[in-house]
Amino acid sequence: MSSSDKKMRQFSFIVILGFLQERHCIQLLRTTFDSTPANVTVIAGKNAILPCTVQNKGDYQVIWMNTNKVLISTEDRRVIDDVRMSIERPFVKDWNLYIRNVELKDRGTYTCQVNTNPIQIKRIYLNILVPATIIEKTSSPNIIVVDEGETVQMMCNATGFPEPSVTWFRRTKQQAKEYIGTKGEMLIIHNISRHCVGVYECVVDNGLADPVSKDIIVDVEFAPEVELRTSRIGQYRGLETILECIVSASPQAISLWMKGDNQVFNHSTNWKYRTDIYKENEHTLALYLRILNLEEDDYGLYTCMSSNRLGHDSKDVLLYEYLDPTTRGPFRTKVTEINEKITSGIHGVYNKIKLKDKEFEYQTTYKSYNVRQGHNKKPYAVYNTGYAGTGDLYNNGVSLCREEIFVAQLLVYFVTGFIQLSLGR
Known about the structure:
This protein is mainly beta. Helices cover 12% and strands 46% of the residues.
């Protein structure tokens, strides 16, 4: 072997020895790994960073595994088929797991491992918070229609983490919001009535964001109910009158007026009747029948009828000819002047009385006055237009107030006594 070959071998040996010594020195530096457990809390939809720090890693490898012990990455290369995950290294010592747009299913314990001997492991618990939401598909529809007396179930299916609370309220037509006092996803109303109609609101909250709510309109249907202001009404002939009934129903009923077996129609060819409908509230209508120029045939029994798919109801109104108690006519007016006093003898007294701007005569006698049993016959006097009530006194068809009779009788007695005294002399 030549001297040059020997020198070349010596140089190679020195280089290899130096390399081995350098590698041994590097390996002698201690690998530092932060294995302290950690908790990371993130709201769903945000990004999460799971920390892992390794100093003097050397030839060791860093791997990440998910909650199901599935390999996520080796070194900085992603293995799992989830593009949301990657290894982020803002510094040489950092081997952080970065998860974008976290979901509730991402919750759990992740591990960062270094394959030293023994293996060093750092556990990071990822806690996902989910704001409260309402699942429409499994909740009640926005409108519920039921028959009166049924049982109603309202569902407000809520989700979130931590578990949200569900509170129920009811809003009336006056928009007043009242607390029902029931908590939970389901609200049950047994034997529901029309008074339970309204908007029911469920409010869902778990403190992470603004509460969310859902409105459920409850409409209760029931058979018609007919009510009357009065069951009897009187009116004079030639005048008009109005019959009224109140109909409560849901859904709105078909309502009409009947006289006997005939329906009372309101159209252009029938001038006698006019019908009007006014809405008093959501389920109540006022039905009016106006009858013009009353005649004898118009008096009788009228029926207010109403019906819907749940049933029907009716009430009768009696329209009768009104004849008020005996009109005492001008005798009830204060007498302002008596122009002529007694002008005849014992058997009769004529009085002429001026009442305001009218002047007329009436005759009185001291004979017994007939007591007219009222409501049997109309008086004949022109000023008496109604029936006489029982106990009114009549003479020759003229009704006299007791006050005027008493005055007339006093005058008769006075004249009679005066004449008898004169004859006695």
